[in-house]
Write a structure and sequence with these properties.
The protein is α/β, with parallel strands linked by helices and 189 residues long. The chain has one domain: Rossmann fold, CATH 3.40.50.360. It has 6 helices and 8 strands; from the N terminus they run E-H-E-H-E-H-H-E-H-E-E-E-E-H. The strands form 2 sheets. Strands 1, 2, 3, 4, 5 and 6 form a 6-stranded parallel beta sheet that branches. A two-stranded antiparallel ribbon has the order 7-8. Strand 1, helix 1 and strand 2 form a beta-alpha-beta unit. Helix 1 crosses helix 6.
Length: 189
């Protein structure tokens, strides 16, 4: 059995040439370099009908729950649509809850066209806090995402460094244990 943490990135973009997915791939590369096993959840490949609270196990919902519950760290990535998360990510998140996120370290990433990304990151933080996940203070917002990539690679090395830092931090803080990943307090006698 592997002792390496598992970091799962969930891409809330359904677009073929998704900048969100590109950025998450870079973050997962950094997680791997920090010693984690990684998995990208590309929601285009998952059967997740609109969430119905009377039927929480439709489509691939059970597999998604199992994967996220097994993860030691999660990176949530979304394009910004009208100042909010994508409907695809919100729908996937609706299938998940405390069983999957409690005491899990979570990194946040949002890609925007011309508008702001801060409200979107705040909505994600609020949702993760509600299901008892631990969001990292370091999060990434990419404004003008259509100008930030060339052939899948970042054109701005500072932005690339921020995304890599996010992936690295999720891997480093992912413990897989029952204690909270970010609240270890040293005491003296």
């Amino acid at each position: 059995m592997s002792t390496r943490p598992l970091v799962v990135a969930i891409s809330g973009s359904l677009r073929d040439g998704s900048y969100t997915r590109m950025a998450l791939s870079h973050a997962l590369t950094a997680s791997e370099e920090a010693g984690a096993e990684t998995r990208l959840v590309d929601l285009r490949e998952w059967d997740l009908p609109l969430f119905d609270p009377d039927d929480r196990e439709r489509g691939d919902a059970v597999q998604l729950k199992r994967l996220v519950e097994a993860a030691d760290g999660v990176i949530m990535g979304t394009p910004v649509y009208h100042g909010m998360t994508s409907s695809a990510l919100k729908n996937a998140f609706d299938y998940l809850g405390k069983d999957e996120f409690e005491d899990t370290v979570v990194g946040l990433l949002a890609t925007a066209g011309g508008g702001p990304y801060a409200p979107t990151l705040e909505h994600l933080r609020t949702g993760i806090r509600t299901v008892h996940g631990w969001t990292l203070p370091h999060e990434v917002g990419i404004q003008g995402a259509y100008n930030q990539f060339e052939d899948g690679e970042f054109v701005d090395p500072d932005l690339e460094a921020r995304v890599h830092k996010l992936g690295r931090m999720v891997a480093e803080h992912a413990t897989g244990g029952d204690q909270s990943p970010t609240c270890r307090v040293a005491t003296s006698d």
